[in-house]
Write a structure and sequence with these properties.
Layout (H helix, E strand, L loop, with lengths): L10 H11 L22 H19 L1 H27 L4 H30 L1
Length: 125
């Protein structure tokens, strides 16, 4: 799991997610610590965005199907709504509907391929 670790604050989050994926036990153990002297180096906006990217990156590494299929399904549902609107109200299929269909199909195929690659990686490790 060392190859997953990044520099900075993310190592605890990365290790926790990796251990949870591997069905390892993770528990909260309170520790004592002294109050910090000086100013914090945490930048709320930048560090929050980095943390969200870390969760997406780690989730994609361990379970790409769970990361990419919900957006694919959402875009497909939007396509269906748009296509029905186009057919009933406009009597014509618009580019918006076709773009939503293409996007949902691309994300779905990408999810299947990424999931297949992840399963092969797990079998060889």
């Amino acid at each position: 799991m060392l190859k997953l670790l990044l520099d900075g604050f993310s190592f605890t989050s990365t290790l926790t997610m990796a251990l949870l994926h591997n069905d390892e036990g993770v528990r909260f153990v309170p520790i004592g610590y002294a109050a910090r002297v000086g100013k914090s180096k945490i930048r709320p906006v930048r560090d929050t965005l980095n943390f969200l990217m870390l969760i997406i990156r780690t989730g994609t590494y361990f379970a790409p199907f769970r990361v990419f299929m919900p957006p694919a399904a959402t875009f497909f549902a939007l396509f269906l709504v748009s296509a029905v609107y186009d057919a009933v109200v406009l009597s014509n299929l618009t580019e918006k509907s076709l773009i939503l269909l293409t996007l949902s199909m691309n994300l779905g195929v990408y999810a299947l391929l990424a999931d297949m690659m992840q399963k092969q990686r797990d079998e060889t490790s």
